[in-house]
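Researcher: I need the complex structure. Ligand is threonylcarbamoyladenylate. Inputs:
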Amino acid sequence: MNNIYEYSAQNMEKAAATIQNGGLVAFPTETVYGLGANVYNAAAVASIFAAKQRPHFDPLISHIAEVDFLNEYAATDERVFALAKRFWPGPLTFVLRRIDENPSIDLACSGLRTLTVRMPNHPIALELIRKSGVPIVAPSANKYQSVSPTTAQHVAEGLGDKVDMILDGGACKVGVESTIIDLTGKKIVMLRAGGTAKEDIEAFLGERIDVSIGSPTIPTAPGQMRRHYAPHNTLRINITEPAQDEYFIGFGAVDGNLNLSPSGNLKEAAANLFAYLRLADTNAEHGKIAVAPIPTSDLGLAINDRLKRASSK
Ligand code: TXA
Ligand code: MG
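Model: Output:
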């Protein structure tokens, strides 16, 4: 079954109707592909958890196309709108206090009194949200704890016919998931490193933000399960001298079978990361992968976070 759809006005209409009617549509964002459903349709939201085999205690991000949506659902203040103005649309997700009493979104929020929300920077995602007329909840469109998808083909490989439509928008430009910040307290806490550099947020705010260490087994904070983004093969990180039988992913001057960015560009490395982990998975003859050291500045923080979890047993 081929459920990958090229971009066209007709396919966008079909995708919006699918969302409205409780179906699942995978769609491109600038970070990774999302597995989308109508936030108000609890049965559709439940089918996301089923398709991904994801536990219900792990809440979903609502994707919106208009900032005004926040007024209805979340406690907002000047800081929230200033951050939205600076970073949206873009790879930054806010955790906000919920103010609504709408039980239909309880499942999407895993029963928490917080709403997790972002405005993606991708024309297909924004058009789909606008045409559907509802916020679209979307986790990454992959099986729970496996490598996230950055192409429509990756989605098809992982989820197949569990999704009604896959909208093809080519390869994702950012390549790692959004940065998540908790704005429910006085002090901003970063819950997941991602496509927006911590340094950029701090420069904008003029203050340092805290980083949540989280619990390795209970996802009180997002994406913080110890094992996540995992390829099938074993993975070692921070390697300069790979073993003979290891498939080696290089970075910068440390060359390998593949190189995330020969010029040492972290944005390029992030964009290649998940696709290269998949390639390594298919090509590693001895079931072993090693990855060169990556600096921890800028997008390197997110890359190292993903690699550390991918290498966890
Ligand atoms: O870039 C992205 O963020 C992609 C694209 C599709 O937008 N989405 C994504 O969603 O990465 P997902 O579900 O794979 O990761 C979201 C993470 C989960 O680990 C979840 O635990 C966490 O966000 N999360 C969501 N709401 C939360 C909340 N209210 N409090 C704490 N963690 C939350
Ligand atoms: Mg995910």
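Model: Summary of the prediction. Residues 234-310 form one domain.
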